[in-house]
Amino acid sequence: MMTATPAVRVDKDEFRAAVLRHLTYSLGKDADHAQITDWRLAFSFAVRDRIVDPWFASTRASYAAQAKRVYYLSMEFLIGRLLEDAIINLGLRDVAGEVFADLGVDFETLLEDEPDAALGNGGLGRLAACFLESLSTLGVPAYGYGIRYEHGLFRQSFDKGRQIETPEDWLHQRHVWEFERPEAAFRIGFGGNVALAGQGAVWTPAETVVASAFDTPVIGWQGRWANTLRLWAAEPEHGFDLARFNQGDYAGAAAPEAAARTISRVLYPDDTTDGGKRLRLKQEYFFTAASLRDILRRFDSEYNDLRLLPRKVAIQLNDTHPAIAGPELVRLLHDEKGMALDEAIATARGCLSYTNHTLLPEALERWSESLMGDLLPRHLQLIERIDAAHAKDHPTRSVTMIGGGDVLMGPLAFGMAHRVNGVSGLHTDLMKKTVFAELHRLHPERIVNQTNGVTPRRWLLAANPRLSGLITEAIGDGWIDDLERLADLEPMADDAGFRAAFAAVKRANKEDLATFLAQGGAEVDPAGMFDIQIKRIHEYKRQHLNILETIALWQEMRDDPHADWVPRVKIFGGKAAPGYFFAKEIIHLINAVSETLNSDPVTSHLLRVVYPANYNVSLAERLIPAAELSEQISTAGKEASGTGNMKFALNGALTIGTLDGANVEIRDLVGAENFFLFGMDAAAVEDRRKIAGHADHAIAADSRLARALAAIRDGVFSRDDSRRFAGIADNIAGEDKFLVASDFTDYWRAQREVEQAYRDQDGWNRAAVLNTARSGWFSSDRTIRGYMAEIWDAPGIAAE
Ligand SMILES: *Cc1c(COP(=O)(O)O)cnc(C)c1O
Prior knowledge:
The protein contains 32 helices and 24 strands. Pyridoxal-5'-phosphate binds at residues 78, 122-123, 126, 535, 616-617, 620, 642-644, 647.
C-alpha cells in the first residue's frame, strides 16, 4: 500500500564484507575461531543494518502523512525465530546462502542456532505475530505492544513419557533484534488510595515500577515497510539500595528490584485459566498502562485536541487480557486531562476494539472486586461508573460489568469497545447467541467477524521452499503478497505432470522430516501416510479421541495383519499447561501407546506413533510441509477458529475435521469432496450433552470403542501399573464433557474414508493441489484488510 523505500538491493561481496566486519568489530571474533553462534550473530547484525533504514523511513512517512496508527495490544507474541523471516522479506536468502557456502559455514545449521522466541502459548500469540508481519507488508503504520518476558513458554521434554517442564531461556544469548529504549520509560503504579478532586480524582499508588521499552523492528515483504514490536520490561523505580547494603542487609537491598522484575519474569503457561491471580492482573495492567501512556505521548507530540483521538488512534485488544485499557484510558482522559466523564468514555470507546477468542466459560476472565480494589482502586471506581452509565442508557439491561463479587472482563471489554470481533464465522455467530447474547441485542452493530489468517511469507514461502518454488514456477511469484492468486493453480490439479511434481515435493518434505525424527530416535517410513495433530493439549481439542482411534486401529491390525492396510505415521505435538492434570495424562498415554505400538513386531510396519517434544513455531515449520492429513477434531463449538488448520491446508494437507471454527470456512472453500468431515455439529453437541449417560450409550453401540477403552483400562499400555491410565478411560466412559465417545464411531468411519481416498494416490494428489489452490483466502493480509475496513477505519497511508 505504501512504499517508504524501494526493496533493498544487495551485492554479494558487500554483504559478505558486512558479515565479516560485524564478526570482527561487533563480536570481537576472528573468522578462524568463530563458532556457529558467532556467525549467526554477525549475520544477524548485518541483516539488521538493512532493516534500520526502511524502519526509520516508515516512521517518518507515518508522521508526514499524519496517518491513523494501529496499536495491537497482546499479552502474547509467539514470534519464533526472526532471522529467516527477515532475510526472506529482504530478499537476502539466496545471497546469504552463497556467502556462507563460500565461508564454509552450514547455512541451515546457522539458521537453526537462533533461539525460538516463545512469548506466547499458542494460537492467540501466533495470530498476533502473523498480524504484525501482515501490517508491515501492507504498509499500515502500527505498533505491537506486549511484555518482554524473561522466560517465555517452558521447554518440554519427556521422562518415561511424562511431560517435564524447564524454563526457556531465550535471552541467554545476545538478542540482536531488539533495541533498548531507556528514554521511553513510564512509572506504573499499584494499590494506594484515591482522593476525590473536583470532577475527577487523584490516585496515589502505594507501589511503583518502571516500564522500560525494548523495540524490535518487524519488516514486511520486500522490505518496503517496517513496524515496531514494543515490549515492556519491568524495572525497579529506585536502583539498588546501597544504604541497606552497607548496613549488611544484602537480601533486603536487592528485594525491591526482585519484586519489580517479577512482573516481566514469566509468561503464564496457560491461556485458558489464570494462575497466580494477583501477579497476572499486575502484568495485564503493567503493559496496558505503559502502552496507553506511550500512545498518548505520541499523539500529544502531533496534535493538541484530544477529541481527535479516535480519528488518529485505533487500539485493538487481543482477548480480554488488556481489557483494563478501557478504564485506564478513561482515567487518563478524565482524571489526568480533565475531560468530562461521559466524553472520556465515548472517546476511549472510539479508539478501542476487542477480539474475543473463546466461548469456554472457564476461560472468560474475571477478577474479584477485592483484588481489583486493592491493586487498582481508581479503576474499580471507574468500572462502576462505566457500568452505571451503560445502565442509564439501557435501563432494561440485565447484563452487568460487575457481578457475583467479580469484575467481568468480557462485558467490560465489550462495553468499552466500538467493535467486538469473533475469529471465524461460526464463532462470531455463537458469540451473538451465547456469551454476548444480551449485549448483542443492545448493540446489534457492534459485533463483526474477522476470520483469522496466517502469513504466507512464513507458513509457505519460508517453511516450504520446495512447494513455494513449484508454485512460483507455475504461476509466478505474485501469490506471496496476494495469496488468492493461488487460485491460478486450480486448473493444474487436472494436469498429471503437475500433480506428480506436487507429490514429489510432499515426498521430499516427508523424507526430510523422517531424517529429523530419526535424530530424536524415532524411526518412520516416509512411504506411510503422515497424519499430524499439533496444538496445545486440551480436552476440547481431543487428542484423546485421536489416540483412542489409533488404539482401535492397532487392535484391528493385530486381528488381521495381512489385510490391505494403509501404513500410517501418527505424529503428535503439543504442550500441556503445567497445572492441567488431565492434559498431562493424555500426553503420558500417547507416549505409552507409542512405545507399545512402535515395538510391536506384528504391526510396527503398518502403524507408528511419534511425539517429538517441545512443539513450537520452529517445529511447526518442519512438520506442516510434510503433513498429508491434518487432524482438526475439536468438539464442535469449542475451537474459536484455529490457525493450524489453515497452515496445513495451504501446504497441501487434507483435513479430517469437525464443523468447528474456521474448519467450516476451509471446507466451504476447498470443497466438501476434498475434506473429511465427521462428528456432531455445535447444535447437536449441545443436545447430546443433555442426554444422561451419553457416553454409555455410545460405548454400548460400538464394540471397537469398548475394546479400545478396555485396553487402556486393563493396562495394555502400562504393564508395570495396570491402573495407570484407567482415569482417562473412566473419564471418557463417564462425564465425557467433550463427547469423545459420542463422536468416536463417526470419526472411525471418516478415517476409513481417508484410507480409501489415500489408496487412490492420484485422486489424493488432486485434492491436495486443490487444498493449496483454494486456501488463498486464509492469508492474514486478508484478515488485516478486514480489520482496517470494518474495525479500525484505518485506510493505510496511500489512501489518505
Ligand atoms: C499455529 C500455531 C498454533 C495454533 O494451532 P491451532 O491448531 O490452531 O491450535 C499453536 N502453536 C504454534 C507453535 C503454532 O505455530
